[in-house]
Amino acid sequence: MEFKTLYKGDYVSLISPVDTPYECLHEKDNVIILPIIENKVGIRFEYCPPYFIKDQIRNYYTVISGGKDEDNIKDTALRELQEEAGIIIKKAKLYRLYENIGFVKNTDMRSSLVLLLISEYEKETPEGDGTKNEEKSKTLWVTIEELKEILKKDNIDSLLWFCSHVIEKVFSSNKKMAWAEPPSPYITSPTEITYWDNYIDEDPWTDDSTTVEDLVMSADIILRRYMEDAPDGDLEEMRHNYYSKIIPLAISYLKIKGSINMGVLEAMIMQNL
Question: What's the average model confidence in pLDDT over 125-154?
Answer without folding.
Answer: 89
